[in-house]
Amino acid sequence: MLDSRRIMQRCDALARHSELAGGLTRVYLSQEQAAANRLVLGWMREAGMSARLDAAGNCVGRYEGDRPGLPALLLGSHLDTVRDAGKYDGMLGVVAAIECVHALNANGRRLPFAIETVGFGDEEGVRFNATLLGSRAVAGTFKPEVLDSVDADGVSMREAMQNFGLDAARLGAAARRREDVLAYAELHIEQGPVLEADGLAVGVVTAINGATRFAVEIDGTAGHAGTVPMDLRRDAFAAAAECALAIERRCASVPVLVGTVGKVEALPGAVNVIPGKARFSIDIRAPEDAMRIAAVEHLLAEMNAICARRKVAMQVIKTHEGGVAACAPWLMDQIGAAIAAEGIAVRKLPSGAGHDGMAMIELCDIGMLFVRCEKGISHNPAEAISAADAQTGAQVLLRFIENFQPKTRA
Length: 410
Ligand code: HGY
Ligand code: MN
Ligand code: MN
Fold this sequence. Notes:
By secondary structure, this protein is α+β, with helices and mostly antiparallel strands. It is 33% helix and 22% strand. The chain is built from 11 helices and 16 strands. The strands form 3 sheets. Strands 1, 2, 3, 4, 5, 6, 14, 15 and 16 form a 9-stranded mixed beta sheet that branches. Strands 7, 9, 10, 12 and 13 form a 5-stranded antiparallel beta sheet that branches. Strand 3 (72-78), helix 3 and strand 4 (114-120) form a beta-alpha-beta unit. Helix 1 packs across helix 3, helix 2 packs parallel to helix 3 (91-106) and helix 9 packs across helix 11.
């Protein structure tokens, strides 16, 4: 009853709602997201669910259990994307969850718990320099100060919510009560090479790596590119570049530690002007919090030394910090059992990528099912999966749902 063709077609349909001509970029509270939400809410209703937009702009579908009002197993992922993204990161998890409910409904199956499918509005944190905004609202951990964050056009999140038809003052209404939620389980592409290397279509996630993100601004002195001798310059971008290389060097020294400078600006941005200002992002991740924290401390000290030697000023703002989010063993066991029942070896692996589970873990236990993606490529338009793997992933998810045993509450 699961239709992988429909899963693939729906990921294609969502990919058409993009602000980027010829590619896929869909950010939080955008018109592209409104269009994607309309599609997803329609698919949720077609699958037999009641469907609504919550106070944070997340799509929420509900499929009642064998009697109304039961606590729910939450399934889902995010509908926003990075810039120039692939079309499966996030969207596959939302579409696959809806497909599973569609199959249950087609068979008239009602379970001893409700199911809710969620399409989170912002996981990537591209627009407002703050991440997991949709799932934080659902988990009740949204930080109100984020409402004053502004995007590249100077639009605050508060204004963007208003333009989207949402009232920032009501955002708290998106928060769910613990007693209404049994667990959160997410199907997501692996975004790495492990499953493909092992010849496996699916795997069980053990934990989501912790991450720390910074926004850095360096102020030097703008000057004439032709007249200022090299030893008299206070070149902000050259200082930023030396910091970036220090980050790369420190993270390359520990196999499982990763560091990225992904967003860079040199200002004023003219070929014949020495950059007086430089802005860049930092993203540091590790499977152990102590390892990440030590690397952050080391790098902040080294960056300060670089800037002091170059006589430039540096401002560092922490924009995100999340510790390792461990998947609950009881959910890992049930996801593993569903994989084994499909005749597939059970491979457990950590997630280097961040996911909504990092926020949802504040509300309930979390579990994740990974689906192989080609060459492990992601955050790239070349991101790809096979229809066969989409089918296998959905089959495992459906089996997990049908055999789901809620954890007995202490
Ligand atoms: O950054 C991440 O790992 C996720 O894609 N937001
Ligand atoms: Mn992503
Ligand atoms: Mn994702």
